[in-house]
Specification:
Strand content: under 5%
Number of strands: 0
Distance between the termini: 70 Å
Largest sheet: none
Low-confidence stretches: none
Structural class: mainly alpha
Mean pLDDT: 91
Order of helices and strands: HHHH
């Protein structure tokens, strides 16, 4: 009877260990999937924000292009009437601004910005340091308690 009882206890122990291991594996897999979903959701949100930013740049380029057209016409008309070259001076800065807007909205400016950001991340990490100490639980909790005491 003792032999059977020991074997039974040993078998139960092994079954419990197997179940515990399966439970741990399941929890780890669930956590991994949750993190992957969160990362994917953040990527989708970032893509939507970037698409909105690009759409805003295009809309601004349309409006600025219209303004540039009207202003250019008026400056050329002013030059033709007065024959004074000063009437055309405004075309220079307006042309640069329009070029920037068009490059941002329809050109490859975003590609160049991303390439520059990659270069900064790779070679100039020292420029990315935020002021103050890194945030952690203790810093956040101390700040929360401090603001609770001051009644904010």
């Amino acid at each position: 009877v003792n032999f059977k009882m020991g074997a039974l206890m040993s078998g139960m122990k092994q079954t419990m260990e197997d179940n515990f291991k399966k439970s741990q594996d399941f929890m780890l897999d669930s956590q991994k999937k949750q993190v992957e979903r969160q990362l994917h959701m953040q990527m989708l949100m970032r893509e939507r924000a970037m698409a909105t930013q690009l759409a805003r740049a295009r809309e601004m380029a349309y409006w600025y292009g219209g303004f540039y057209g009207v202003a250019s016409f008026l400056m050329v008309a002013g030059f033709m009437k007065t024959r004074h070259p000063g009437a055309l001076v405004g075309l220079v800065p307006l042309s640069f601004v329009l070029g920037y807007q068009l490059d941002m909205a329809f050109g490859n400016k975003m590609d160049r910005i991303i390439a520059e950001a990659d270069q900064i991340l790779e070679n100039e990490q020292n420029l990315l340091r935020l002021p103050g100490e890194p945030l952690n639980f203790e810093v956040i909790d101390a700040s929360r308690k401090k603001s609770a005491k001051s009644g904010q």
